[in-house]
Amino acid sequence: MKLQNLVILGTGGTIAGRALNASDNIGYTAAQVGIDQLLAAIPALAECGPFITEQVAQIDSKDMSFAVWAQLAVRVNYFLTRDDVQGIVITHGTDTLEETAYFLQAVCRPAKPVVLTCAMRPVTALAPDGPQNVLDAVAVARHQGAQGVVAVCAGTIHGAWDVQKVHPYKLDAFSSGDAGPIGYVEEGRLRLMRNWPFAQMRHASIAIENIANWPRVEIIMNYAGASAAIVQALVDQGARGLVVAATGNGTLHHELQAGLFKAQAAGLKVVRSTRCIDGRVLPLPNDVIPDSEGLSPVKARVALMLDLLAEDAQGLAARRV
Ligand code: SIN
Predict the structure, then answer these.
(1) Whole-model pTM?
(2) What are 100-126's pLDDT values in tens digits?
(3) How many helices, marked H, and strands, marked E, lie in the chain?
């Protein structure tokens, strides 16, 4: 039986990076090798096609922008609607992969697999990790029943809600924290531990191709000696939302807290996440600042931007009636 197409979208990252020296795993330039060249260097892929490839971007993911996110979501949505497409693999830098994963899950809500993969070493390394990660990602995208946005790195499948880069150098750089991974890829076969991400999201769905103005949402942190000065500066600059990476179970220095209450009173949306790597802020009945419902600060920021975009769209629709 002929397999359906798998789409592979390139966006850059270390997986497409080049160094001058094969023994150099850190002094490389990301996003140098095109998606077709990258895949041509993985002969084992020949047995896993057919593929449709597209270069959506060619960037170091530290430079991820709203424009690239929108373009990526548009292409993902397009390929998801095609009956001849089984799933999508996206090659991406590791640095902001978790934000892109959450964004695509929230915006595209895929009933098919959308698998982000990456590498910690460039193409030119003595032992690059990208080729195996791509093969594993393809195995996930070909798995019957796979769905939603996941990340595959170092033989581990992480869900879009939970995945977080936790190490700047190790090949196994990602964790799903308390939730644990969705599963593992072992010699092309999947060993699943829990369910795939499901389409239900708390955000209203938004038409990504129509966004003219992305709301400004910034992340600030609580720490010893924190003050309200940064909050005031951001309010003055027109920020519409703030995510605070609070200490522990959502605690805030009293001066920063006073500034955030003032910002709320002025109409800004404020959300509390925790700077702890695992766990979540456990809410109390009288909380003035809502918690991020388990999202890390960077994902809580994406969620808040999407909430504000949905509000803007509703406002626009109401004005048109
Ligand atoms: C990037 O995020 O694009 C560079 C770093 C990496 O992919 O590991």
Answers:
(1) 0.96
(2) 999 999 999 999 999 999 999 999 999
(3) 7, 13
